[in-house]
Amino acid sequence: MNVIAIIIAAVVIAATGIIVGIGLGLFGEKFKVEVDEKELAIRDELPGNNCGGCGYAGCDALAKAIAAGEAPANACPVGGAPVGEKIAAILGTTAEAGVKNVAFVRCKGTCDKAKVQYQYAGISDCSKASVLPGGGPKACSYGCMGYGSCVAACQFDAIHVIDGIAQVDKEKCVACGKCVAACPRHLIELVPYDAKHLVQCASHDKGKDVKAKCQVGCIGCTLCTKQCEFDAIHMDNNVAVIDYSKCTNCGKCAEKCPAKVIL
After folding, report:
1. Domain housing 69
2. pLDDT averaged over the chain?
3. Residues 263, 232 share a domain
4. What pTM, to 2 d.p., does this model score?
5. Which residues does residue 157 pair with via DSSP β-bridges, in sequence order?
6. Residue 169, C-beta contacts closer than 8 angstroms, at least 6 positions apart
7. So what's the pLDDT on residue 38?
8. How far apart are CA 120 and CA 131, in angstroms?
């Protein structure tokens, strides 16, 4: 065994390791990605649901946007005010108190109120059922189908199908908007949490046709619009629509609604 050869080999290997290590160090220093400590701190405060309710791809994207000043401290609908306040403290600002929203299903056509055209025993998925003849088994082609696509989309157990229509638990809803996107009939909207009067119908049919399909649909009589002193309710293609920025929750529209479709 040649001892000198072994020593030379060891020295070469050691020298190579040192050179490679120095090279990697210089390479890492030159091409390192600067980490925004503020962004990391914000990300730690976000809940991590990655629901997209904030309008960004996920919590990482939202943290980056908040740190860059492109989104407010209270942009996370899941974390709400407590998380907004913590993030504001990181930013050295104050979190503005925004209006809490919740999802609302614009349909009152429960099993005993809405008529059906035929019995359906297929896949329980609203998107698939909506392409069936007549737009599905329910006679009203605007009403909730009740197959729970919105339920499957909700990560917070805040929406369930009860008596044939989807209903939202206001206390669990975080207004992430997943159910809104999942409804093929666009029946779900985000409304202020404290809104007391809501129109439980989205049908654009004329009154006679509505009554033939559902006992509790908006018949477009316009009585509600005539009662409102605040210009907060109007007819949109035969159905009443409330402007929540103007509504004072006086309740006159609900009192005069002959179909009792306004909460």
Report:
1. 37-91
2. 88
3. yes
4. 0.74
5. none
6. 157, 158, 159, 160
7. 87
8. 12
Nearest of 186, 196, 194 to residue 236 by alpha carbon = 186
- Per the structure, the count of domains in the chain is 3
- The phi and psi torsions of 241 (rounded to 5 degrees) equal -130, 130
Per the domain annotation, does 24 fall within a domain?
no
Q: How many residues does the chain have?
A: 263
Q: What is the dihedral of CA 249, 112, 163, 165, to 10 degrees?
A: -60
Q: Check whether 169 has a pLDDT greater than 80.
A: yes
Distance CA 247, CA 234 (A): 11
Q: What is the pLDDT of residue 163?
A: 96
Distance of CA 148 to the CA centre of its chain: 15
Structure tokens at 94: 């104050």
Classify 48 in phi/psi space as left (phi over 0), alpha (psi -120 to 50) or beta.
left
Whether 81 and 206 have beta carbons less than 8 Å apart is answered as no
The whole-angstrom separation of Cα 51 and Cα 48 is 8
- The terminus-to-terminus CA distance of the chain in angstroms comes to 96
Rounded distance between C-alpha atoms, residue 35 and residue 92, angstroms: 19
State both tokens at 14.
């050691």
In order of 89, 91, 139, 203, 211, the CA distances from 208 in angstroms are 57, 57, 14, 12, 5
Q: Could you give the 3-state DSSP secondary structure of residue 243? A: coil
Return the closest-CA partner of residue 203 out of 119, 135, 256: 135
* Amino acid letter for position 21: G
Q: Looking at the structure, do residues 107 and 173 belong to the same domain, yes or no?
A: yes
Strand-pairing partners, residue 165, are: 162
